[in-house]
Amino acid sequence: MRYFFSAGEASGDIHAAQVIRQLRAIEPEAEMEFLGGDEMAAEAGRPPLIHYKHMAYMGFIDVAAHLPQVLGNLRKAKRAISEIRPDAVILVDYPSFNLRLAAYARSLGIPVHYYIAPKLWAWKEYRIKKLRRDVDFIYSILPYEKDWFGERGVRVEYVGNPSVEEVQRALSSLPSGKEFRQIHNLDQRPILAIVPGSRAGEIKSNLPVMDAVARRHPEVQAVVAGAPSISRDLYRGLTDLPVIESSTLRLMANASAALVTSGTASLESALADTPQVVCYRSIGSPAAHDLFARILKIPYVSLPNLIGGEIDSETRRRVNREVATSGVRGCIVPEMLMHHCNPDDVDRQLSPLLRDTPEREAQLAGYIKVRERLLTGRSAAQTLAERIISYTKSRQNAANV
Hints:
By secondary structure, the protein is of the alpha/beta class. It has helices spanning about 10-25, 40-45, 60-65, 65-85, 95-105, 130-135, 145-150, 160-170, 175-185, 200-215, 230-235, 250-255, 265-270, 285-295, 305-310, 315, 345-350, 360-375, 380-400; strands at about 1-5, 30-35, 50, 90, 110-115, 135-140, 155-160, 190-195, 220-225, 245, 255-260, 275-280, 335. A seven-stranded parallel sheet has the order 3-2-1-4-5-6-7, with helices on both faces. A six-stranded parallel sheet has the order 10-9-8-11-12-13, sandwiched between helices. The radius of gyration is 21 Å and the shape is globular.
């Protein structure tokens, strides 16, 4: 059988690679075409049709600045789907681009599977109509999504969270703290992991703030997690802190605390038991924060809080007016967003996490709740691969009757 994958950023590349591995384990002769990165290429045994480093644009301004390339990528992907006529299209996150591919595949009668559901419960709920129309199955990695999508008439299954097994696998092969420091030429001070994101735009916005906070703590050694698709020159133009590439999980696992740009890394930090402050800065003005808060329909933006946080009734009433920060009850990790993402406010949240304090203990206790709510006892990638193959074969058998 032939499969077409589309993953437009680093985390999607990692998650999709695991699905490709499981598909190939069940069907060694399966053919793969894909948009993605090096992880997927290693499992598929061929380079991507388009590498995600030419796709990972985020936000209206970033997308508008690269619109010709975005549209060119879309045309190239549609042309490949039309020529290959895969047995299934598997879309991984990246909704603005992938929902367009879903509509195109559906127009050709090709089944569409969506892995890592678009976060419509947070914003852009109007896209639910496109999901109902163009996607055959959605595979969720967040347990509360099953009810949310199901109530809106979308077929969805919670398959577990791939970060759980990815972190477990990384930690099982983890070098000792001493070895990690020797490999990367680090000294013996406690490590502060700086994780500024995987896209150039978010790195430019968040790394300078994280760098400024780190310099207030000479008692720790700050180390930047380099994203695989980002040039070292970009980091060098923003900081002189050491940069470690392609070892984010190991860096966080060896760190005493972390500053993390909101996204998958915040969940990985929780699964690695590393206390953190979640940061997100794009436009650092109060007006931008207020607009952000009105658009979002959730009290939290980070995955540890969304999965494990307890939302009280007062918070629910404020959901459309205020984005939660560390002052909101039930928050596991502090969230410093927009104009709150500044050196003073971020440092105020980080400082207690660098010592044995009630704040540090509370985060670690919250992480236990996060893990409990994510566990299914099975591999998310294996479950997904089995579902795709089963659906594809049943469809082929029905066509042959």
